[in-house]
Every structure is written in structure tokens, then in C-alpha cells.
Amino acid sequence: MTGEKKKKKRLNRSILLAKKIIIKDGGSPQGIGEPSVYHAVVVIFLEFFAWGLLTTPMLTVLHQTFPQHTFLMNGLIHGVKGLLSFLSAPLIGALSDVWGRKSFLLLTVFFTCAPIPLMKISPWWYFAVISMSGVFAVTFSVIFAYVADITQEHERSTAYGLVSATFAASLVTSPAIGAYLSQAYGDTLVVILATAIALLDICFILVAVPESLPEKMRPASWGAPISWEQADPFASLRKVGQDSTVLLICITVFLSYLPEAGQYSSFFLYLRQVIGFTSETVAAFIAVVGILSILAQTVVLGILMRSIGNKNTILLGLGFQILQLAWYGFGSQPWMMWAAGAVAAMSSITFPAISAIVSRNADPDQQGVVQGMITGIRGLCNGLGPALYGFVFYLFHVELNEMDPADSPDKAHDCPHNAIIPGPPFLFGACSVLLSLLVALFIPEHNALSLRPGGYKKHTSGSQGHAHSPQGGACEGKEPLLEDSSV
Fold first, then answer.
1. What is the pTM of this model?
2. What is the membrane topology here (predicted)?
């Protein structure tokens, strides 16, 4: 009896907390207008625009804070953040099913942007909070769940495309603006501006974003239990070996995304401090590669899928990725980086093509399981990749000790000539993608993916308890990032 009373008390506390967090109005959404994809687009744009502004100041602060083993520390910081995000994404997604999306959008955006003002207050705390913020840095999971709530299945891929393109667009423009402001007025102004934009994003969510998951669509009780299977980040990974095709796809994703995740964490630092790019050139590089990637993932991807087929598109994308990483690894001249950047844009077709082959071959009721596995593997890579790159830089003594960030590009440019391979991690990455290409050769073009054994049934029975989206079962959409929230 005492145990039951305690349980009831805990339940009542969680109900009260939830009611405080989410402003209730008879179940009707509060905000400006009806819930729409455009609300999600604005939230994503403001968050990543704020972070994009900090590209130049962050490279400077990183080198000043960790003059010894800069690449290693950078890898560890991003590695911890990635692993924490991987562990927390399913739990936050499952909780947002019960408590609604708006409160979790507020939570994820707040904690993701919390480190920004600390950059000038205390760099050590800034990097510590960045690592820890990984627990809540899963805005995309909640955003894709928000979009799934308010779109029909046939509209969903277009809506996801719009959100992804907005993310790319925010990073195309903001680093260039941040670099210009940093040079003209100093880093402090850029940090203040980024903080202001992050606050604007939080205010926009509070005032303008309506709740996409009405109360009547949620579980009957506010205290509806969240099963541990839903919150377990390794749940989807355990099902990998149940089908040979799924296994091949997952190995391909792991071997190709591991170097990509590591590259994202350290490449701009590498361009700035080792190759000798100025802040303005780094910003221009991000903009050009971003625009080319958007073109590759829209126009070029469509043409390739129709002309050479799905599997060959994956193989071509992996081929471009090998070429790009090898070029980054051996390249010591700025023009080589620009040429490799154009190839990198073409390699961005790989993952959409993998998602397409999965969505075409898997049964409708198994889409979520397979896509959830792929998302889990990418989440794991986001933690392992940066740490691996940092360790390889450290292992090969690629250090920035002799260089001050304010030094001329010529001095930085001398660094790579001391080594036969200026960027060892990129070469390791190229070898990893080569293995991925060899595995991808064995992926069948057409094959029904089967994950029927007990593990799958258990998963579906767990998720049916939360099948309360406006489209019911259709919420198991084809966007991988959505699936890591077990929607």
C-alpha cells in the first residue's frame, strides 16, 4: 500500500509539472495560427543561424583555450556531445509523445543555445557546457516529429526537404556574416548578436509556435508510462542482424558516416590553422559547398535516381566521398581544398539514396524499425567520429602549437609541407569509405526487407501504445531523424 501511495504521488507530481510546462487551453493549440511546417522552419533557421555566426570566433577561442593538442580536445568535446545526443534522443522523443512537442522544442533549443554567451564569459565553461548540452541537443528529432504531426504521409518528404534545406541555407549565410562582423567589430559583437538570435528563437517558440500534438491525440493519461524499450538508444541496433540486406545497409552507413561525422567536427579548424584559409575564405568555402550540396541533393539526385538507379547512385556517392577525403588528406594547397569541396557536395547524395532504397524495399509497417536502426548508427558515429579524428591528429602530431590564430596565412601554410600526408584522419576516412563501397556492392537493388522475428513484434507492440499522431500509424514516416524519437 505504501508503495502504491508513493507511485500515485510521483504520478501527480509529473502531471502538475507537465501542466505547468504546457499551457493548456481546452486542448486547442496556442500560438500564431494553426501548426505548420513554417513554424518548424523558423525555429531551425534561427537556431543554426545563431551557431553559424560563431564559426570564426569559435575557431579562435578553441585554439586559445587549448593551445596544446587542439584537434584532440576538439574531437573529445564534440565526441562527448554526440554520444550524449545519441543516448538521450529516443527518451526525449518518447516524452514529447506524452507531453507535447512545444515544451520539448523550448527545452532543446534553450539548452543547445545555452553555451553561446559563455564563449566570452568563460571559454572553459563554454566548452564544458557544449559537451553536456548534448543531452538536449536533439532539436531535429522533435522538429521532425512536429512536422509528422501536421502533414499527411504524401506531403511528408517535401516537408522534411524544406526543413533540411532551411538548415543548409542558415549555414550558407551565417558564417560569412559572422566572419565579416568579427573582423570589422570584434568577436564580442558576434557573440552578443548570436545570443540575441537564440533568445529570439526561444521567444518565437513561447509566443508563436502552436502545439502540434493536441491533448486528445496523446495517451489517455498524462502519466502514461514510457517503456524502457522506447527510451533505449540501442534497441534499434540490436535488430541489425535479423536481415542480411539491412545488415549490409547498416555497415555501409557506419563506415561512410563515421569519417563524415569526424570531418564536420574538425575540418574548418583544419582549413583555418593548417591549410591557411582566412576567416573570410572559410566562410566563403562553407557557402559555396552548401549551395552545391543543396543542388546535388535536389536536382542531381533526382536525375541520377531516374537514370542509373538507386544502388548505383549510392555507389557513385561513395566514390565521390573517397575522392574527396583522399584529396583532403594529401592536399596542401588551398585550390586543392576548393576542388575537393566541390566533390564533397556531390558526395552528399549518398545518404538520401540510402534512405530511398530502404523506404522502397521495407514494408510500410517496418519503415520505422529499419530507419530507426540507420538513425541509431548515425547517432553513434556523431560521438565516435569526432573523437577518432581528434585522436588520429594527435597520433600523427598535427599540432597548432607554433601558430597564433592571428598569424598570417603564409605562416600557417608552411605547416603541411613538413608532412607527406598533411591530413592523416582524412586518409583513414577514405579507407573506411572504400570498405563501405565494397560492402554496398552486395546490397540488392530490389529485395523485401524482413524483420519479422520476435524483436520486431515486441517493438511494434510497444510503439502502438503511442500511436496517437493525426495520421495514426502513418507517423512512421520515411525520415530517419524522425525515427530516433520512436514516433
1. 0.69
2. Multi-pass membrane protein
